[in-house]
């Protein structure tokens, strides 16, 4: 379910007219819908209502302060993977006791930052990292709450191997076969407090089967840890629930054919973990923000060659890298709809000097003209956060919509600010 729809043939985010917004803000820009964010958060929260739980929004998907603050207002915690994300979460009002810290390479400085803040738990991904956390905690005279991230060796069947993290040959987690021994070791460390167990198998997962397989392995493992005398308060199941990127005009509730709903996953959580008396943690990222955001861009030129039609727009791979990096599919909707418009096969491409710079390839697109606005859909997750400034293209603004109201939540970066980040070495800086 999302709140982007046409009113009198103009695409609106909630009650905000995107053509007007484009005129006011300039293109390209990201626009997020508050109502969609909140609804997704609530649906996920409700799917676990019968169990004690914490939703730790995986903020790598979209870490704008306004997005975080909106979710925090509704009770969300955060899954962070760097000191930077930790600082952002705290600054936006996410309580430290709802923050989990994941990732394979936490630095001593980041560990100290998290201990100082008093986070809920570290999700530990290797034995050396466990030692590092113990050492930092000891130097601070505190105890570090930890869960080991286990790797269940399950194929998440995601669309891209680049985001398939639950298999044994990835860098993530500790193999189940080694984890028992490391838990025993952790229990003997003076400044480590075992509080739970953690797992995350991948992203954009469109079937419940990988979750089922992984949950079974995790449940068996939790029972084995209990038999060894470990006390576990938290079971963190990670994120990964896939979202529809296609047929977005269909009501989200009807898109069950190929997209499991949060409620379906919630049922599975009850089935496998409901009787264990633990607090469940989930780390959804994409499921909350992907369909809450669009990237609005303007058509600059139409270029027709003997081989192809190119729609050249002002957004590019530096603004939204998912199509280039993963060959990910994003629907592209005209901001002004004309049902009578003829459709042609075209590539939608940006101005960056790489053949890989495209937002869509071989797509049936309505007959658009220079000056028209297009909305790249489902761009709220892993869009703005993965943007860069390649070709000295400043970062584009982010706008948050709430009903008919909107606010710029990150202004457009200026070329001056971008150049201003550079410094001249003394031998070139002759005044
Ligand atoms: N927890 C952990 C430990 C993760 O590594 C991730 C995502 C999540 C939670 C959230 O997963 P989600 O619910 O969003 O699927 N850039 C890629 C996706 C990378 C996902 C990385 N980890 C993309 O654009 O598709």
Describe the structure.
- It is built from twelve helices and 21 strands.
- By secondary structure, the chain is of the alpha/beta class.
- It has two domains: 4-31 and 291-419, Lyase, Ornithine Decarboxylase, Chain A, domain 1, CATH 2.40.37.10; 103-282, TIM Barrel (Alpha-Beta Barrel), CATH 3.20.20.
- It is globular and about 70 Å long.
List keywords for this structure.
431 residues; alpha/beta; Lyase, Ornithine Decarboxylase, Chain A, domain 1; TIM Barrel; 2 domains; nine-stranded mixed beta sheet; eight-stranded parallel beta barrel; globular; binds ligand LLP
Shape: globular
CATH architecture of the largest domain: Alpha-Beta Barrel
* Count of spatially separate domains: 2
Count of helical stretches = 12
Oligomer kind: single chain
The CATH topology assignment of the largest domain is TIM Barrel
**Global Rg:** 23 Å
What's the CATH first level of the largest domain? Alpha Beta
Q: Estimate the helix proportion, in percent.
A: 25-40%
Helix/strand-derived category reads: alpha/beta
Classified in CATH, the superfamily of the largest domain is Alanine racemase
In this entry the ligands are:
ligand LLP
- Residues in β-strands, percent: 15-25%
Specify the biggest β-sheet. 9 strands, mixed
Number of strands: 21
Low-confidence stretches: 251-256
Give the helix/strand layout.
Layout: E1 4-7, E2 10-13, E3 16-17, H1 18-25, E4 29-33, H2 34-47, E5 53-58, H3 65-73, E6 77-80, H4 83-91, E7 99-101, H5 108-117, E8 121-124, H6 127-140, E9 144-151, E10 174-175, H7 176-187, E11 192-198, H8 209-227, E12 234-236, H9 262-273, E13 279-282, H10 286-289, E14 293-304, E15 309-313, H11 322-326, E16 332-334, E17 343-349, E18 358-366, E19 373-376, E20 398-402, E21 405-410, H12 415-419
Parallel strand pairs: 4-20, 5-6, 5-13, 6-7, 7-8, 8-9, 9-10, 9-11, 11-12, 12-13, 15-17
Antiparallel strand pairs: 1-2, 2-3, 4-14, 14-15, 14-19, 16-19, 17-18, 20-21
Helix pairs in contact: 2-9, 5-6, 8-9
The structure holds ligand LLP.
Ligand LLP is lined by residues 58, 60-61, 79, 102, 163, 200, 203-204, 238-241, 283-287, 322, 326, 382.
């Amino acid at each position: 379910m999302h709140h982007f729809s046409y009113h009198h043939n103009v695409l609106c985010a909630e009650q905000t007219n995107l053509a007007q917004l484009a005129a006011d803000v300039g293109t390209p820009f990201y626009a997020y819908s508050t109502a969609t964010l909140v609804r997704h958060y609530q649906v996920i929260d409700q799917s676990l209502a019968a169990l004690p739980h914490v939703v730790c929004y995986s903020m790598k998907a979209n870490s704008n302060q306004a997005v975080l603050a909106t979710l925090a207002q509704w009770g969300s915690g955060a899954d962070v993977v760097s000191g930077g994300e930790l600082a952002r979460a705290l600054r936006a009002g996410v309580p430290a006791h709802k923050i989990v810290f994941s990732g394979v390479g936490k630095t001593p400085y980041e560990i100290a930052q998290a201990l100082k803040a008093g986070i809920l738990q570290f999700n530990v991904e290797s034995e050396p990292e466990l030692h590092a956390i113990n050492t930092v905690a000891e130097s601070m005279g505190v105890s570090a709450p930890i869960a080991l991230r286990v790797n269940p060796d399950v194929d998440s069947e995601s669309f891209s191997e680049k985001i398939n993290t639950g298999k044994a040959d990835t860098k993530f987690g500790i193999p189940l076969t080694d984890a028992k021994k490391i838990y025993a070791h952790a229990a003997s460390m003076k400044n480590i407090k075992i509080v739970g167990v953690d797992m995350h198998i991948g992203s954009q997962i469109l079937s419940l089967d990988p979750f089922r397989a992984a949950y079974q392995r995790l449940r068996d493992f939790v029972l084995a840890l209990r038999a060894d005398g470990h006390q576990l308060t938290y079971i963190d199941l990670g994120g990964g629930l896939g979202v529809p990127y296609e047929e977005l005009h269909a009501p989200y509730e009807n898109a069950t054919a190929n997209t499991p709903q949060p409620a379906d996953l919630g049922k599975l959580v009850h089935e496998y973990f409901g009787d264990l008396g633990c607090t469940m943690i989930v780390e959804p990222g994409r499921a909350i923000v992907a369909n809450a955001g669009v990237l609005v861009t303007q058509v600059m030129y139409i270029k027709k060659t003997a081989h192809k039609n190119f729609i050249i727009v002002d957004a590019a791979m530096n603004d939204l890298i998912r199509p280039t990096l993963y060959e990910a599919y994003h629907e592209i909707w005209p901001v002004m709809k004309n049902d009578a418009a003829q459709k042609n096969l075209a590539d939608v491409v940006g101005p960056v000097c790489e053949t890989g710079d495209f937002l869509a390839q071989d797509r049936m697109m309505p007959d658009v003209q220079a000056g028209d606005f297009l909305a790249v859909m489902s761009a709220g997750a892993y869009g703005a956060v993965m943007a860069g400034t390649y070709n000295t293209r400043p970062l584009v603004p982010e706008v948050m919509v709430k009903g008919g109201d909107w606010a710029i939540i990150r202004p457009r970066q200026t070329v001056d600010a971008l150049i201003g980040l550079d410094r001249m070495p003394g031998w070139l800086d002759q005044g």
